[in-house]
Specification:
The longest helix has 30 residues, at 279-308. The chain is globular. The protein is built from 17 helices and no strands. The chain has helices spanning 3-27, 34-40, 45-48, 55-80, 86-105, 126-144, 161-183, 192-205, 235-255, 258-265, 269-275, 279-308, 312-327, 345-372, 380-393, 397-400, 406-418. The N and C termini lie far apart (61 Å). The chain has 429 residues and is mainly α. Helix content is 65%, strand content 0%. The chain folds into two domains: 3-155, Tetracycline Repressor, domain 2, CATH 1.10.357; 235-382 and 394-418, Tetracycline Repressor, domain 2, CATH 1.10.357.10.
């Protein structure tokens, strides 16, 4: 190729990746097709295959570009902010990441694909994408460690309490960054810097007023009905909902096929269609089931607060920490909230509305805590989204903290996010 043709090839490839990311974010990587991507950028399908022969190759290219973009933010922070300055590093990371999202929203830079469907990729395409994602996670973990992003080898020994704590903090922070893509659209991009400042402040200092303590023992899950559905006592239907939820958490909406769900339960596809007309109807029910569980914990916390005259901080803890126990209980798991981005238009909007309503209840708890002085003065809307991000982080926690049950998850994952990354760690065995 000549230099001119090489430049044109690169420009066209970037146009394809931008169009593909936007399409796959809207339709999911299973539903989106090469012909749709081609049409979105004004190409014939056979012209697009000159750049990417298979859809899976195009998806991997989109994922690698998203990972590289986040890696670039991490590398910039590592180069500019000294390793010992955790507060400066977290602020710079959030500000840099949110600025990148603002540029994408304003179409000043290409779109980036969501990571939710990544586990639906088949081999051999999945291997390089996951390797790059894990490498990015390790660099972010190093950024939180005194050694810096390039010092992963100097981190505490694998399996040690210190290593698990650092993994939890990194997973929690990364989950908050990725969840921000789901809610920042509520703001105009001119407000993004202000929101980034509020988000960084919450991540560093948490919600609790200085005189408020962390619970001495993990809070258990309340005894809740499995769901609000009228036939929630149907064991087979409940089994489908729990299994589908786990598969969506692990493989995305596209990867949770009817065949995979039925095979996991050792049931026939006919049994599936006896309970649900379509897969999207099943996913809708999975969302409603998780919403009912979150709602149940919220109401239980508010009811207990009225009986015991609990302050806002105590009420907020009672509305969030039991969700960790619930997630790993027979009533769990909770569905990954970011799965709403993989649903078709009307259904996506319905789930978005419900998530916002549940978030408003968390925001009201924050306001009540500010009124009684148990919660710091923070932006309650942003605080509610960080609580939602904590719930969303549960869907992948077993990949980064294998074997850690509810008693460990509350101090490891929730405490750094609710009390702040700068809060002194609890003593660990």
């Amino acid at each position: 190729m000549t230099s001119g043709s090489t430049l044109r090839f690169a420009e066209k490839r970037e146009l394809i990746l931008d169009g593909a990311a936007r399409l796959f974010n809207r339709r999911g990587i299973k539903a989106g097709t090469l012909s749709e991507v081609a049409a979105s950028v004004g190409l014939a399908t056979n012209s697009l295959t000159y750049y990417y022969r298979k859809k899976e190759d195009l998806v991997v290219a989109c994922l690698m570009r998203s990972i590289a973009a986040l890696d670039g933010v991490i590398a910039d922070v590592d180069a500019r902010v000294p390793p010992g300055d955790l507060a400066g590093r977290v602020r710079a990371l959030v500000q840099g990441y949110v600025a990148m999202l603002a540029a994408i929203e304003d179409r000043l830079r290409p779109a980036l694909i969501f990571f939710g469907d990544m586990r639906a990729l088949p081999q051999p395409q999945a291997e390089p994408a996951f390797a790059a994602y894990v490498a990015m996670f390790r660099r972010l973990r190093g950024l939180l460690h005194a050694g810096g992003a390039g010092a992963d080898v100097a981190l505490p020994v694998v399996g040690s309490a210190a290593r698990r704590a650092l993994n939890a903090r990194c997973h929690g922070l990364l989950s908050q960054l990725l969840w921000a893509r789901a809610w920042l659209g509520r703001y105009e991009t001119s407000d993004y810097p202000r929101v980034a400042t509020a988000m960084a402040d919450l991540l560093l200092h948490g919600l609790a007023a200085p005189d408020q303590a962390w619970p001495a023992a993990p809070l258990p899950a309340p005894d809740l009905p499995p769901a609000d559905a009228p036939d929630s006592d149907n064991a087979t239907r409940e089994a489908y909902l729990r299994t589908a939820t786990r598969l969506v958490n692990d493989h995305g909406v596209g990867g949770a096929s009817v065949e995979r769900i039925a095979a996991t339960l050792e049931l026939t596809k006919g049994s599936f269609y006896h309970h649900h007309d379509t897969k999207h109807e099943l996913i809708d029910d999975c969302f409603e089931r998780s919403f009912a569980l979150i709602r149940g914990v919220q109401w239980a916390a508010l009811g207990e607060a009225a009986v015991r005259s609990a302050n806002g901080w105590q009420t907020l803890l009672a509305a969030t920490l039991p969700l960790m126990a619930l997630h790993t209980s027979p009533q769990g798991p909770l569905l990954r909230l970011t799965a709403w981005t993989e649903l078709p238009g009307a259904l996506r909007w319905q789930k978005y509305i419900t998530m916002n309503r549940l978030g408003e209840r968390f925001a009201a708890m924050v306001v009540a805590g500010q009124a009684d002085g148990s919660i710091r003065l923070v932006d309650p809307a942003v605080a509610a989204q960080l609580i939602a991000g904590l719930i969303n982080a549960l869907s992948e926690v077993e990949h980064w903290l294998p074997g850690d049950g509810p008693p460990a998850l509350q101090p490891l994952l929730a405490r750094p996010l609710l009390m702040g990354l700068l809060a002194p760690p609890l003593e660990t065995p």
